[in-house]
Amino acid sequence: MSLFWVVVGQLAAIETMSTSKKMITREEWEKKLNDLKIRKEDMNKLVMNFLVTEGYVEAAEKFRMESGTEPDIDLATITDRMAVKKAVQCGNVEDAIEKVNDLNPEILDTNPQLFFHLQQQRLIELIRNGKVEEALEFAQEELAPRGEENQSFLEELERTVALLAFEDVSNCPVGELLDISQRLKTASEVNAAILTSQSHEKDPKLPSLLKMLIWAQNQLDEKALYPRINDLSNAMLEDPTT
Amino acid sequence: MPASASTNRPEDLIGRLKSSEGEAKLKALREVKNQIIGNRTKKLSYIKLGAVPTIVGILAGASESDVSLIVQSTAAIGSFACGVDAGVKAVLDSGAFPHLFRSLSNPDAKVVDAAARSLRMIYQSKLAPKYDFLQEKNMEFLLSLLNSENENVTGLGASIITHSCETTVEQKALCDAGVLHRIIYLLEGSLNQRDASLDSLATIVKNNSDVISKFVGLKGGTALSTITELIKDRNPRTRLLACICLIVTGNAFPCYLQDIGTKTKLILILVELLEEPDQVGDEAPFALANLIADKEDLQKLAFEVDAVDKLCNFLHKGPVQVKRLRGIFLALGELCSKMEICRSRFLSLQVLNVVTDALNHDSLDVRIAACICMRNVSRSVKNLSAGRFMNEMIVTSLVQLLNDPSTLVQVAALGAVSNIVVDFTSRKSIFIQCGGVKELIRLSKSMDTALRLNSLWALRNLMFLANKTCREDIFLELTSSMLASLIHDPEPLIQEQSLALARNFVDGCVDCIEHVLADNGVIINAVGKQLWSSFKSEVCIQGMYMLINVATGSEFHKEAVMHQVLAPEASDCSQSFVTKFLQNNDSRLRTAAVWCVVNLTYPDSPGGSNRIERLQNAGVISQIKKMVNDPCLDAKFRCSKPWKAYSEKGFACSSVASLSKGRTCLSAKWVVVI
User: Start and end of every CTLH domain (chain A) (predicted)?
Assistant: First the structure.
């Protein structure tokens, strides 16, 4: 009988060990954070990287002058890239294609998927504007050959042409193609391709850092109670609650 | 004025390119460029209409300061050359090369960028002329490209190397000129520079151990670890190219690719890259196949990280694009080339039907790759024994491929056929019913050596352990005169296969022995003639076993063999080939010669003692007595009891074991799974 109680006691001890987490107060935490050194230049570079990747050309120019941080890309190219992006967002796809080709003809020549998506967007815009005949001709002349080259393009083409079959496109199963989000999707695909062609990473680094912060906090949650940052926008340390 | 829609038709635009001037010409040029970029069909129609020479003419006539005109025409030329062979040809034929090279020294950076891009497009095609950097002047120019500050220009330099460096002399010349240094330096540059450098690096070091030794010593010996880091890069193309560099290095010097961790990582990365939708995903399986080819340790490693399952999953997912499909089949083929566990796993994943379907694929390369995969999977003795591959679907498709217009496909199909006809379940009739024998015999008469060789190989394996009717069907179709002439084929490899075919035909079947002695002994005479004259061990071994098998028959059969053994072929050579083989350095040949004597002198047969006497007179027996201490145990064993037969009919032993051992078998029957 006594052995039984020993075992129960041990089990209970193990349980408390696993549930009791280390408690770190706000003061301790802030003190630890104060001991860490971060270089100003690194911060500036991250900010510059964000401005450049997201295409805030004027802000980037100002920031360069005020902080002395050199962007890793020619700022003039941002203007061109933003013009392309904007053209797609406004539905001027043909204009966007011409601009991309002026920037670097290789982008659309070596990226069939992007080229197809731009042409598809062109078709969507024709349909949106009620130019049925032109849309059909365009689908047949420009898009059908791409569909022959690639099975998945053919499926997407069929989906897009299906828009013509419905009277009320807003309620049809493929209606989402007419959504503004479709334009944004295409625009960001072009943006990423241009960045890649300029040897630039297509995503800014700041979001990755924040993602890492969230991941690290989640890991730490299992081991300790500490002042967590829950609201990323103001980066406030919140008191740990038990 | 035509309607606005018609003004942009190719014919109209080409007209305007030719006749208009100034802004109008530039506008037309830009319109053509925008129509063809990304659009293969448009490119082809413009090429057909002769647009390329017109545009090259515009570039040639433009003055150095006319930047827009040069940039637009150069971009259009580059686009014609991108991804369309006819375009590359048209561009080269219209003499664009010198104009594009001249533009590289234009003071305007936009012109330089455009020219470098277009030239790079051209150099990405197989049709581009080889750049001869063995000429000092050219090497200097290449170095000036690589040393440029302009990213597009260094990229062009790297592309020229990737396209043109083929021989070890060229690799060495580039290395001696310091190109490797520059390339390693460029690895630290932008993303695009890094990829271009990795690509050309693999070309310079490939299969060249001298250059690889220099490369690994660069940067104080850290060059290789730089590449090893890059296999983990975020950019998929960089990962692939870095993997390829490590693979070519490791293939030349296994010592640089010893770390199990790195090897495992390479396999995992390459399999993972198959997820990439573009060219990277297409090329990844080829790199994987190259990594594991002929290396059992790497195949084992690949198996352990579920590479077979992952590759097969891609085949299950639905239609795979041509190049990728081919790559996956080749990689699976390599995985199944040596290890039975891989083959069993492959067969358990239900993808054999995908491979079977691909035997009828439109693409020649896919058909070949599917055949290779089928051949390697069907090396599985266990599954061959179970008749797993002898089903109508597989057999019909393979037999159909024996009629393929491409010899390469036919040879690949014969490889698979050779294995699947090794069947132990008496289902060989399926193959015969599908018309397979007729096709094999037709190909055995081909002018092409590879076709003759491989079709005979398949026939030999089909004959292996077949039932009597099946053997007779094949033999009658082939005819004895045909077999005799194949035994006399000028090609020793074909002689060997023909003799092996005869050997399997007469194995353990008295009626079949009668067949080879018919027609005035045309076949056995052909065999004897080869044994008297051939110097190739492999040929003689097969010939000897054919005689050994005949000597298991009746008195009459044994005498027919005696006739070959003792008939002096040439007056100046009285020593029998048996005596000659007994003294041969090749122990397999000595063993075969002893077996032959054993079967001829089997004591219970009436003429046995008479034959001993004749062999004694010919000096054969005295030679055997000298062999008591033969270093080859097998021969020695038989010599110490040469006249005690091992079975009633003479010698015959099971050949199932010999399947896995390949060519080292000692049986009367003979089969090699290829």
Answer: 77-134
Task: Compute the average pLDDT of residues A34-51.
Answer: 94
Residue B358 and residue A152: Cα distance in Å, rounded? 20
Alpha-carbon gap, residue B200 to B124, rounded angstroms: 12
What's the pLDDT score for residue B217? 86
Last residue of a domain, one of B129, B150, B166: B129
Chain B residues in contact with A106 by the CB 8 A cut-off are 78, 82, 117, 121
Residue B504: closest CA among B672, B668, B673: B668
Helix (H) or strand (E) holding A23: strand A22-23
Domain count, chain B: 2
State the Cα–Cα distance between residues B295 and B293, nearest whole angstrom. 5
Residue of B nearest to A151 (CA): B319
Mean pLDDT, rounded, for A94-121: 95
Question: Which SS3 state, helix, strand or coil, does residue A237 take?
Answer: strand
- Nearest to residue B594, comparing CAs of B537, B559, B632, B554? B632
Residue B56 has pLDDT above 90, yes or no: yes
Per the CB < 8 A criterion, the answer to whether B109 and B80 are in contact is no
Instruction: Give yes or no for B608 touching A (CB within 8 A).
Output: no
Tell me the two tokens of residue A166: 């419905």
Type of residue found at A156: E
A235: distance to nearest CA of chain B, Å?
28
- The CATH number that applies at residue B39 is 1.25.10.10
3-state secondary structure of B115: helix
Q: Where do the H-state alpha helices sit in B428-567?
A: 428-433, 436-444, 449-463, 468-478, 480-487, 492-506, 510-533, 537-550, 555-566
Question: Any bridge partners for residue A228, and if so which?
Answer: A238
User: How do A224-225 and A22-23 pair as beta strands?
Assistant: parallel
Angstrom distance (rounded) from CA B418 to CA B460: 8
Q: What are phi and psi of A229, to 5 degrees?
A: -100, 115
A95 CB within 8 Å of a chain B CB: no
Specify the pairing of strand A228-229 against strand A237-238: antiparallel
Query: Which among B129, B147, B175 is the end of a domain?
Result: B129
**Is residue A227 within a helix (H) or strand (E), and if so which, with residue range?**
none
Q: For residue B202, is it within any domain?
A: no
Q: What is the pLDDT of residues B114-165, one digit of tens each?
A: 999 999 999 999 999 999 989 999 999 999 999 999 999 999 999 999 999 9
Q: Is residue B177 part of a domain?
A: no
Measured between CA atoms, the residue of chain B closest to residue A152 is B319
pLDDT of res. B126 = 92
Contacts of B34 in chain A (CB under 8 A): 97-98, 101
Q: Could you give the CA distance from residue A45 to residue A159 in angstroms, rounded to a whole number?
A: 44
Strand-pairing partners, residue A225, are A23
Chains A, B: CB pairs < 8 Å: 55
Terminal-to-terminal C-alpha distance of chain A: 37
Domain containing B8 equals: 1-129
Cβ atoms of B657 and B648 closer than 8 Å = no
Q: Name the helix (H) or strand (E) containing A175.
A: none
- Report d(CA A190, CA A172) in Å as an integer: 27
Classify residue B462: in a domain, yes or no: no
> Is the model's pLDDT at B166 over the cut of 70?
yes
Please tell me the distance from the alpha carbon of residue B106 to that of residue B70, in angstroms, as a whole number. Answer: 10
Cα separation, B8 vs B123, in Å, equals 30
**Percentage above 90 pLDDT, chain B:** 69
Helix axes B608-617, B555-566, angle to 10 degrees: 0
Q: How far apart are CA B584 and CA B575, in angstroms?
A: 13
Q: Are B620 and B576 a contacting pair, CB within 8 Å? A: yes
pLDDT band at B3 (very low <50, low <70, confident <90, very high): very low
b/e burial code for range B479-513 (CB count within 10 A of at least 16 → b): ebeebbebbebeeebbbbbbbbbbbbbbbbbeebb
Say whether A22 sits in a helix, a strand or coil: strand
